[in-house]
Amino acid sequence: MAKHGQALMDRFAAAYGKLLDACALAGCAVLFLLMVMICADVLLRNVALIPGVDGLPWANEVSEGMLYLLTMLVAPWLLRQGAHVRVDILLRAMPSRTAWYCEWIADTIALVCCVVMVVYGARSAWASFASGSLSIKTLIMPEWWLLAPLPAAFALLGVEVLFRMRRLYLGARGARDDAVSTA
């Protein structure tokens, strides 16, 4: 029974990894579109290609939203890859068992933070949706469109933290070596 549960969890982890890969690819697409938009804005501001068009007045506003969306899309994938900032010099200097417990504490805090952000973000997005709030700048759009990625991203981050905890539990009793290096 335990081997069946382990195999099921491994299949779920693999499928989840594919979901995070898809999110990262979507983030790459957003980054590419952001680059094209900024280049077009700069070009149109400096070269009179189209009479009467002096840049893209909405580009700054859209780029803000795209940077936020890009961050939300790739953060869970980056956590899985270990491509986030991690200073573990103290963990490497302390006894292995103590370092292992510190890893547990850090992961528990991360999980609690993720849950809080999911709840807070979902409540905020729902309240914005229910009240019909609008973001009014150069463009007018429903505010909840900007708020909805936050709880989704933190839900994915929370699941990844749970996978990190699983790997920590199954691994050696010391500072983790999995998903900790950008190299």
Question: Can I get a quick summary?
Answer:
74% of the residues lie in helices and 3% in strands.
Describe the structure.
By secondary structure, the protein is mainly alpha-helical. The chain has one domain. The chain is built from 6 helices and 2 strands. The protein has helices at residues 2-46, 59-81, 89-93, 96-131, 143-147, 149-170; strands spanning 134-136, 140-142. A two-stranded antiparallel sheet has the order 1-2.
Radius of gyration: 21 Å
Beta-sheet strand percentage?
A: under 5%
Biggest pleated-sheet summary: 2 strands, antiparallel
How would you write the strand order of the largest sheet?
1-2
Q: Quick check: average pLDDT?
A: 90
User: How many beta-strand runs?
Assistant: 2
Shape: elongated
Distance between the termini: 37 Å
Pick out the low-confidence regions. Answer: none
SSE layout and pairing:
Layout: H1 2-46, H2 59-81, H3 89-93, H4 96-131, E1 134-136, E2 140-142, H5 143-147, H6 149-170
Antiparallel strand pairs: 1-2
Q: Tags for this entry?
A:
183 residues, mainly alpha, two-stranded antiparallel sheet, 6 helices, 74% helix, 3% strand, elongated
